[in-house]
Design goal:
Elements: H1 16-52, E1 70-74, E2 79-93, E3 96-99, E4 106-111, E5 118-119, E6 124-128, H2 131-165, H3 172-204, E7 208-209, E8 214-219, E9 226-227, E10 235-239, E11 243-250, H4 251-255, E12 262-267, E13 274-281, E14 291-298, E15 309-321, E16 323-324, E17 330-332, E18 335-341, E19 347-351, E20 353-358, E21 361-366, E22 374-375, E23 389-391
Parallel strand pairs: 1-23
Antiparallel strand pairs: 1-22, 2-11, 2-15, 3-10, 4-6, 4-9, 5-8, 6-7, 8-10, 11-14, 12-13, 12-15, 13-14, 16-21, 17-18, 18-19, 20-21
Helix pairs in contact: 2-3
Transmembrane segments: 35-52
Organism: Altericroceibacterium spongiae
Domain CusB-like beta-barrel: 247-316
Length: 396
């Protein structure tokens, strides 16, 4: 007997299309699982890589079994290090000569030099109009001729009188008077000559000349300008072209610098370095900024412009001290410090004072002797008193 099947109101008939859709949904779900599993695997691999190959810096943490962390330590010893002081300052002429009007002045006819020109001692820098002075000199020269003529006449009168005195026509008093006249005329010649030479010297001082050889730095005069004793500085000259750096140094640094030591000077705006020598150390300290000046002599070079800014590295002798790499020296609000491996392999904080910084490391001037075992890396992850396993570089 066949049983009659009826469908409920909520039931859906099972067909071939329904089975196909379910299979497609299962396939899509399986692909999503595979993609998510692949992404998770990549993330795990990346995390493992960064944990195992986290660069050169160590990150010491105690292992799960309670074993002490491993740290790399070094024993720096001591070495002789050339100490060097870095300072900044302003370039200037070592011996700057201000040049102005020496004579009575007048109207400038021409200016014969420009800033940057080299001049020799006595070379004319500017020419002053001397028409009036030339006329005065010619007048003085004529006065010499007049005085010489008077002197010759006086000499002739005296010679004739001496011939007549033997015959009794001329008294001795007349001879004395004529002799005095002759001597006075000769003196007038000398006076006229001296006045003439004085005018020539005055005229020679009208031109503005270089007092010594050197490099012209500035020019503050133009043709047609009227100059005199109150005109001030018209030219400035660096004697011999010599320059210097006025290096500003603190009290401590200034005390370690001696005259005669070498210095390397690099002007701003150029990568060229010039060798100089400290020739004077300031005997006083500025009360306002507590600094003094070390004057560094330099030979002339176009890049050394007075008024420019430059940096100097001054040799300050040598110091024997431990040398540590930068990774071993830590710092906080209390200052610089290192971790020393003490008794029972426990870390001990040791405050240090750092000195010169070189390509090979940083000099430690106080705080350690160099025979200690110093934590090389990862000191920032340690705490004082922590027990560690120290190993030599390359064995960690």
């Amino acid at each position: 007997m066949e049983s009659e099947m009826t469908e409920g109101p909520d039931e859906q008939p099972v067909t071939d299309d329904t089975v196909t859709e379910n299979q497609q949904d299962g396939a899509r779900f399986s692909r999503k699982q595979k993609i998510l599993a692949l992404i998770a695997g990549v993330i795990v691999l990346c995390l493992a890589y960064f944990m195992l190959a986290g660069g050169e810096e160590e990150r010491p943490f105690a292992s799960d079994d309670g074993q002490a962390p491993t740290v790399t330590v070094i024993t720096p010893g001591t070495a002789s290090i050339d100490d060097e002081i870095t300072a900044t300052g302003t370039l200037a002429a070592r011996r700057e000569m201000p040049v102005g009007v020496v004579g009575e002045g007048g109207r400038v006819v021409s200016v014969q030099v420009e800033p940057g020109d080299w001049v020799s001692a006595g070379q004319t820098l500017a020419v002053i109009d001397r028409n009036v002075q030339n006329q005065q000199a010619q007048s003085a020269a004529a006065q010499i001729d007049v005085a010489k003529a008077d002197a010759e006449l006086a000499q002739s009168n005296l010679d004739r009188a001496l011939k007549l005195v033997e015959r009794g026509f001329i008294s001795q008093a007349d001879i004395d008077r004529l002799t005095a006249t002759r001597d006075s005329a000769i003196a007038q010649v000398k006076v006229a000559q001296a006045q003439y030479r004085e005018l020539l010297a005055r005229n020679a001082r009208l031109n503005i000349t270089a007092p010594a050889a050197g490099l012209v730095l500035t020019r503050d005069v133009e043709p047609g300008q009227v100059v005199g004793s109150g005109s001030g500085v018209l030219f400035s000259i660096a004697r011999g072209g010599q320059m210097e750096l006025l290096a500003q140094l603190g009290e401590t640094a200034l005390a370690s610098v001696k005259a005669g030591v070498t210095a390397q000077v690099t002007p701003v705006g150029t990568d060229k370095t010039f060798e100089g020598q400290v020739w004077q150390v300031s005997p006083i300290i500025d009360e306002a900024n507590r600094q003094g000046i070390a004057r560094i002599a330099l030979d002339y070079a176009p890049e050394l412009r007075p008024g420019g800014f430059a940096t100097a590295r001054i040799a300050a002798g040598s110091v024997v001290a431990p040398m540590l790499p930068e990774s071993a020296i830590l710092s906080d609000d209390k200052g610089s410090y290192v971790y020393v491996i003490g008794k029972d392999n426990k870390t001990v904080r040791r405050s240090v004072t750092t000195g010169i910084v070189t390509d090979k490391g940083i000099a430690v001037t106080s705080g350690i002797k160099g025979s200690e075992k110093i934590v090389l890396r990862a000191g920032a992850f340690l705490t004082e008193g922590e027990t560690v396993q120290p190993v030599a570089p390359g064995k960690e």
